[in-house]
Amino acid sequence: MTKVEYGLYDMHCHLDFMSNATQVARDAAESGLAFFATTVTPRGYKYAAKYLRDEPNVRVGVGLHPWWVADGRCGLDDIEEAESLVFDARFVGEVGLDYSTAHAPESSFARQRCAFEKIARACSEGAEEHGPKLVSIHAVRSARAVLDTLELAGCLENCLCIFHWFSGTSDELHRAVKAGCWFSINEMMLATRRGREYARQVPENRLLIETDLPPGEGVDYAAREIVDSVERTLAALREIRGKDVRDSVARNSAALLGR
Q: pTM (2 decimals)?
């Protein structure tokens, strides 16, 4: 995808959660939609990479989701495997930190930080050897810690970092913008006043669209639902920003996925 081959892009979704992922990918291609398919575990990545490798509109990221680290579903072996996979991969995500006690107990924060530091270092070191990596990042109540980790590891210089569904403070947003990060916007983010304001502030050349679909694991899904969500988000952004950003978002996405 070195040029804008598709009209629509979903820059953060979980195709591996869909029991009919291959069919969804093929139906999406017919509708002009391409994906950055993030995963949450090394096992999920290997599954998705195997079954979606022949789909030209899909890029699959190596994932190590902080929720899975927090509750122990991803242990030391999984962290080490993710670290190894990330070093050679071009696409990484979903990775990051979650400091919301609604999803992760405070006792897990140190474990999350340790895992994310390993991933960030592997991304930066792998990028030095193989070229820039595209990284989709989860940062709930942790944007400052995430930025600190990325900066210390060299990821902000060596990688292309996307904040998925950004929910940090205004100062953290400005820091991330200054650092050259991208931001993927979804319908849920635009349901809040702060989310809409952030969507207005993100520079147009750093703006992306995502869906974060489906809402659960092991489900049958339809490409049409993803297309419709992307279209609704684009329509909302047109109202929020006072202009149509469809072409800009497509160019941004194509440039990132084509690297």
A: 0.96
Residue 161 in contact with residue 155, Cβ under 8 Å? Answer: yes
Give the pLDDT of residue 74: 97
Cα separation of 175 and 181, whole Å? 9
Q: How many domains does the chain have?
A: 1
Q: What is the pLDDT of residue 54?
A: 96
Ranges under pLDDT 50 in the chain: 1-2
Containing domain of residue 38, as a range?
8-257
Beta strands in 87-151 (DSSP E): 91-98, 134-140
C-beta separation of 153 from 163 below 8 A: no
- CATH classification of the domain holding 62: 3.20.20.140
The distance from CA 219 to its chain's CA centroid, rounded to whole angstroms, is 20
What gap in Å lies between CA 20 and CA 201, rounded to an integer?
37
The answer to whether the beta carbons of residues 137 and 160 sit under 8 Å apart is no
Contact yes or no for 52/21 (Cβ under 8 A): yes
Output the pLDDT for position 101.
92
1 lies in some domain? no
Burial letters for 147-174: b for 16+ Cβ neighbours within 10 Å, e otherwise? bebbeebbbbebbbbbbbbbbbeeebbe
Compute the distance between CA of residue 118 and CA of residue 166 in angstroms, rounded to an integer. 22
pLDDT at 259: 53
For residue 2, what pLDDT is reported? 42
